[in-house]
Queue: 4 jobs
Job 1
Amino acid sequence: MGKLPGFENMRKAIETIKAACRILVTSHRKPDGDALGCMAALDAALRRQGKDVQLLLLSPIPSWYAFLFDRLPPILGEAMTVDRLTAGGYDLVVIVDTNSRNQLKDLAGWLDKAHVPVLVIDHHATSDRLGSVEITDTTAAAAGVLVHELIQSAGWSVTPDMATALFVAVATDTGWFRFSNTDARVLRIAAQLIDAGADPAAVYARLYQNFTSERFALMTAMLDHMSLHFDGRYAAQYLTAEDFRRTGAAYSDTEDLISECQRIGSVQVAAIFVEQQDGRIRCSLRSKGAVNVRAIAEQFGGGGHTNAAGTFLPAPIDHAMSLIHDLIASRLPDVP
Ligand SMILES: [Mn+2]
């Protein structure tokens, strides 16, 4: 390995893209602002290089990100099938913001059989080495940082729409530049994106002052269900399938709601348990202290970052909550 392995991987990634004609671009299930911002920016960047680009979603997108796309990308298992992927003749698959098989639903099995080169652009520590070429950097605040660096390295220009998409990516993954992953590198990129046409106030209003009444009702249900443990250091919250039925909210409406309880000064670890339509329990974890929540999620096959991670847990919800409760007890200091 040379002195600058990151630089070498970047060079390989650009060569791989240049050699490809039909490119499939996708990201993880339950896509967030980073995933979707990267997909939208790559779509524009690659089209401007004359590539035939197909975006693919693995689950529905939260409605407030729809403005990133002229037309909503198809969802695997709905408008796009595995058979149609095979018939698509793709000569490159780009996966952004994940390197984990269990984040890719049926796409993982298709990749095993398709023998197509895969470029992974990711910043998570959990990695299944899915890429034949990988731009991976766990110190990057968002995958959007790496996509921006790829576009810069390739010498491609950034249009205002691309700048907005990448601003969404870096701003959402840093909690609007408040989380501990906020560093000078991501702020420099944010400044460049503003220079290139991103409007932070307009994006903020669109993403954070744009709740539906259904989503707001879901948030109040979540806050009603919050309980504090271990001298207020752990906040546990849950949402049942009945909460979604009653409020009319969508499953994608849960994004970011977990962070509300982190406004409580004593809270070091937060969890939300969401009962899925298939009965499983989706658990998201956040930490603002020393507890490594990725290590907790990985015990159940999940993954993520030290301060933000997620996993699926077996039902019922009480059982799922007790599993996490016990692990957090073992990781917080001085729990009696
Ligand atoms: Mn990300």
Job 2
Amino acid sequence: MEFGFSDEQLLLQKTLRQYAKSELLPNYHRWDRGEKFPREKILELGQLGILGLRAPERFGGQDASFVAGGIASEELSRGDFNYSQFIQLSAIAAELLRENASPEVQAEWLPRLASGEALFAFALTEPAVGSDAANLTTRAVKQGDEYVITGEKASITLGGFADVAIVFARTGEAGARGISAFLVPLDRPGITRQVYQSPGERLSARGSLFFDGTRIPARFRLGEEREGFHSAMVSFDFNRAFIALACVGAALQSLDETVEYTKTRQAFGRPLAKFEGVSFQVAEQLTVLEGARLIAYKCLWLKDQGLPHTKESAMSKWLGPKVSVEAIHACILLHGHYGYNQESPLEQRLRDVIGLEIGDGTPEIMKGIVAREVYGREYMSYR
Ligand SMILES: Cc1cc2nc3c(=O)[nH]c(=O)nc-3n(C[C@H](O)[C@H](O)[C@H](O)COP(=O)(O)OP(=O)(O)OC[C@H]3O[C@@H](n4cnc5c(N)ncnc54)[C@H](O)[C@@H]3O)c2cc1C
């Protein structure tokens, strides 16, 4: 059994932790308070090699492992939780393209994905379906050598400023088997956007994408018709571990800050850290976070080995956000009134992390997947 990272992975961890501390953390609050997020920052991530982690080297990517993607997600979140979403969405798009697109479409889009020139969103959810995404109603109708897409995609991360979306639309019968995936450049005619007022994750401009007879070339279909839903589920299976690690990274950073704070803040003539009521809380939170972190890395390691990991993915996605929210909440309380203050990053982290208790699958749906993997499909409540 091997729990350590490779030398290369340790270097990635060290480099990104430093980058998060010096470049991201000092600016974390700015994009939350309405300052426009500069596009150059995304190109900077491209130059760092972070966006092309899962893109092939011949297209400007890194061909890195999924574990490396997890490290990037965890470390960048220590500086700015929202940066993990660039990693998640570029990794999903890179996977979907390399597995399902023609060589020409890969050559056209993967270099732009890796450089940050083309920022991708993932558009599955609709106003009437989230957990039950297999019942989506957005339609893609084939007309000659084009598809015509009509419908609304809701709650789309980066919806406000992504350049391209992987859109899941119905091309066939009802249910999961009638869904196909498409690469849709968002500058096409017939597309409008609406950004939501979110309590957190404001950098990511989550919102709706409206497609009104939007035409795309048929070659932008990813994979065969009717295989789109399966592709979405394959993406979830690694992305849920990335999400868990993003949440854990934000929580571990909060605990680091809390350890420092409670060493210096005095009460009753001694540092707060001397009270076991304080230090034991830190110990407890670190212990459960380490458990969540290990499941997430195990999931990614399984993926790298080509082994089944759906159960570990759902376990990660349930546990990681949950224990991270609890840990950050505890950190706020341990900072006293200084924690309940917008001068501290803690309250923003709490708002940000709560979003990913829901995004990519709720706790109930995650537990349903774990139960399905244990009991078998015949015991699912909705089959
Ligand atoms: C921050 C954030 C980012 C997101 N980013 C994206 C994105 O980039 N792309 C995208 O496509 N979507 C995105 N989403 C949407 C997200 O995936 C959905 O919100 C999520 O899948 C839940 O769907 P819903 O909101 O429709 O809730 P619903 O499905 O309506 O569920 C509501 C409640 O009912 C519970 N419930 C539903 N079914 C069951 C069941 N069978 N058993 C028990 N309980 C059940 C749920 O657990 C939940 O508590 C994002 C959401 C958030 C909050």
Job 3
Amino acid sequence: MGDLARVAVLGASGYTGGELLRLLATHPGVRVTVLGARQAAGRTLAEVHPHLASGPLAGMRLEPLEAEDLPARADLVLLALPHGVSASLVPPLLEAGLRAVDLAGDFRLPAEAYPAWYGFEHPAPDWLERAVYGLPELFRDVVRGARLVANPGCYPTPVALGLAPLYREGLLEPGPVLVDGKTGLSGAGKEPTETTIYAATQDSVRPYRFPRHQHTPEMERSLALAGAEPAPSVTFVPHLVPAVRGVLITCYARAAAGATTETLTEALAAAYAGEPFVRVLPAGAMVDSKRVRGSNVVELQAVVDPRTGAAVVAGAVDNLVKGAAGQAVQNLNLMAGFDETTALPTAGVYP
Ligand SMILES: NC(=O)c1ccc[n+]([C@@H]2O[C@H](COP(=O)([O-])OP(=O)(O)OC[C@H]3O[C@@H](n4cnc5c(N)ncnc54)[C@H](OP(=O)(O)O)[C@@H]3O)[C@@H](O)[C@H]2O)c1
């Protein structure tokens, strides 16, 4: 790929697209060559994302997504588009020799799951089979050589990272796991809807899309891929909370006989020793979505309630960074042979 990777960002006008460009603007190994958008095509990045108006990409003009010469102008494409769009857009780009990281859910599940969970028949099942699930801390080696990386969802990222090592070590009983999720409003993208506008969300906490949220089968699949044997079934209840950024998940399972808060915490700490983007909290400390805001870090915490035998694993990420754009840049770094941490902040923005 040479020293400078030429990168196209499709969906540059959205929230995750903007976050990709905030990170890539300081990436020493990347030259952003194409910004693709739908309605925002024709405008400059500074007009579309005024918070990026002082950066090196500010004057770049967004183009229609279907730019015919795109394959000649990029080595790698990052797609931050609504579900169902990249499934058709990606295959011709791959066939033209590009590599791709898709931030949507279009390449995360087996083909037969798409009608039920995403509401469409997958148009490229062959590419789906070749896609690699891009959770670097669990699947780093396959990401390096991948042509197509399915960037994980914001909720499944902390769930898989928090639970996989504990199932693998036999510290949780096999069986169903309950996952409670909470997300800030940026998780729904930039288009306002009746249920996401300020008047509907201020002072409100409410579940949504339960029990049909599309991240449910992704959680089950990522745990199976990561070696949870047998993989648990997941009941997932997401909630919308009146915050802008942040995802917090709380997973409830049964602790295996003899498992304690200390053994679970030690297992997580051992699994992620040396991982720059995973912060395993010591026993007794509590995760906080605000602390990881703006960073590519996931915070994890595990507790066993000795009275009931319940094991509780909690995790926090910034949905737009480790839950989306940061993880995509981490995958890009692996694919292009850069240091995996390049352009990725570990310090959060606080308070
Ligand atoms: N937000 C998160 O926290 C998060 C986390 C993980 C993954 N994701 C995934 O990342 C993807 C992008 O999410 P987002 O939050 O960035 O969404 P967003 O803010 O709504 O941005 C969507 C982008 O896609 C373009 N677009 C919208 N409708 C389109 C259509 N029908 N055809 C082609 N392009 C279209 C928009 O272009 P114009 O504005 O120019 O029309 C915009 O650039 C989604 O698949 C989402 O599930 C999001």
Job 4
Amino acid sequence: MTGRLSLDVAIIGGGTAGCAAALHLARRGLSVALFERRTVGSQASGVNFGGVREQGRDFAELPLSRRSRRIWDELPALIGSDGEFMATGHLKLARDEDQMAVLEAFATGAADYGLAVERITGNRLRADYPWLGPKVIGATLCRSDGQANPRIVAPGFGQAARRAGAQVFEHEAVRHATRDAGGFRIETEAGRQVTAATLINVAGAWGATVAGWFGDAVPIAPRSPSMQVTEPLPYRVKVNVGVVGGDVYARQTPRGNVIFGGGQGWNDMATITSRAGETEVMAAMRRLTGILPWAGGAHVIRTWSGIEGFTPDDLPVLGSSVTTPGLLHAFGFSGHGFQLGPAVGEVLAELVLTGRSETPLAPFSIERFGGVLAASA
Ligand SMILES: Cc1cc2nc3c(=O)[nH]c(=O)nc-3n(C[C@H](O)[C@H](O)[C@H](O)COP(=O)(O)OP(=O)(O)OC[C@H]3O[C@@H](n4cnc5c(N)ncnc54)[C@H](O)[C@@H]3O)c2cc1C
């Protein structure tokens, strides 16, 4: 396939962030094309745990996360699907007093952002959540948090973007991109030559590679959270559950399967392969039965992982390039970008259209890493 395209905006990456950006830009009448190496939502956006939570985030992320949470409620109107989002609440558990202090501190600080987080201890903990194991000594509940089906969210945004007029090219990797006085020149593996006034880099774990084409240096580590799902068990856990420190997290589908994660698996960036870690699978099962003892002995029917870019401070890069006018980055979501994706798309569209965002982005500036590479040819 060959061809030439001249666009207002080109987008590299078809995860939730890229598809949401394409949707908003196309709705505003811009000519937009998105290039995805595999299929829309086939990487982190489609294989994650499905947690949609504000609780436990770095406070710097809360304004963006709060904005995204509002959009999760509006998904049916925005993309024609609710993504199976359910506001089940997120219950974060403490297994000792130090962890309880962490939960208390978050609950207090979150109030400044208008996020309600309830402390739950003692008899109420046992009465409301009788399925918790005795190692759990307390918890905090954020009722507005929840869970969704990652398999359908990014494709939902992708389909909505297409309906709004964006061109979404799947199985078409971007080989390289440069910028000159005429704008961005983008070449795909299929041989397509594209020019665009603006380029958006939402390439997930490969975001630093794309940034590097323009001399923007970001220290990204590709990691692969280890995920598992059990056979159906009696439906008990209606909230999304995590622990302080994140060494295990779980949710149960109404059909009864317990989806849980914890620890890191492995990946091979060259072949784009990821797997749950052999030892992590057993370790996460042990930690799961520490908080949900009745799940002990359940058959695990599938394990999997994905590839996600982690930054040194676990905050994303979201905003303009240091080196290249018209280049926007949004990547490095460090294991918690599924909840943020809908707002990231809106923010990117705002930046393209107005050069600024109503959401504070300073903590996500690429400049915090301070590095500029020698631009590649
Ligand atoms: C196993 C796992 C569990 C997680 N659990 C949660 C959770 O419960 N809650 C939460 O909020 N977050 C979670 N996350 C994190 C979340 O999934 C990601 O932060 C988020 O999906 C990132 O979205 P994205 O659109 O930025 O990136 P991706 O979904 O990774 O999309 C980037 C896309 O860019 C494409 N691409 C890369 N290079 C090129 C190129 N040169 N040309 C064309 N296309 C290219 C890739 O193929 C990919 O599809 C988890 C992640 C993983 C891996």
